[in-house]
Design brief:
Helix content is about 15%, strand content about 25%. By secondary structure, the chain is an alpha/beta fold. It has a domain at about 70-235: Purple Acid Phosphatase, chain A, domain 2 (4-Layer Sandwich), CATH 3.60.21.10. The strands form 2 sheets. Strands 1-2-3-4-6-5 form a 6-stranded mixed sheet. Strands 7, 8, 9 and 10 form a 4-stranded antiparallel sheet that branches. A hairpin with a 2-residue loop joins strand 1 (about 70) and strand 2. The longest helix is centred in the N-terminal third of the chain and has 15 residues, at about 10-25. The radius of gyration is 17 Å and the shape is globular. It binds fe (ii) ion.
Amino acid sequence: MSGDVSQRARVHEFRDARAWLDRFAACAPLMVVPGNHDTAWWHAPFGWGEADALHARYREHISAELEPVLHLPGVSLVGLNSSLGMLPPALTWYPRDWRVKGGLTTAQIDAARRKLAVTPPESLRIAVVHHNVVKGRLSKRWGLARPQVQLDALAALDVDVICSGHDHEERLELVTRATGQFVASTANTLSNRMRGHRPSAVTVIEANASALTLRAWPYDASARAYTPGPLALSVPRRPHRSTNAQPPTPLRR
Ligand SMILES: [Fe+2]
């Protein structure tokens, strides 16, 4: 679950979200990372204040771990917390970006790399980040501050897929950088805040030894079901590097 489980990081919203998430957790292993709406940015505007308080309520009600890792047979998932409120790595020069855009630090990327290092080589590797790492098609907006630098750092992580939310439109894109390659999968939303009055959608990820295939399943209101849609992407599986490259440009700590 790639975040924004609340609207304003209120206690009653987190309690409701917790009950809802428990229903998912009863069906399958669940990992959650926070979104910008789950972040109490007002505790540390521009980095002044208590950064530890940004996710105090989230930690209490949703998950004590902001960057969880989940190793399952055939797949490993690592969470990255891009929802830094108004801490410097998430800021740009444009006030409209403040509290909305995300950021990642070198320390976070390094930690994710260490967590992935124990993954069996044949396993699919997936990173889960709230903010869309590629530009939205309808929104025309990047999710992360300094997106080009972040793409190089994320590609060096040597993951197969990076799953994101935030943009409210499903999107699949093969990202190829000098540092590596991955498929960016931005999810649609399960809320009623659809972009462009489009239906909700889920993205199904399938992999075998030779291929990785992602397909969006939009919600068909007449069938009252999610059904396979035209948006799909299939790429050959590629071996993971035995040692991961370091990001070429240092990110902010
Ligand atoms: Fe968001």
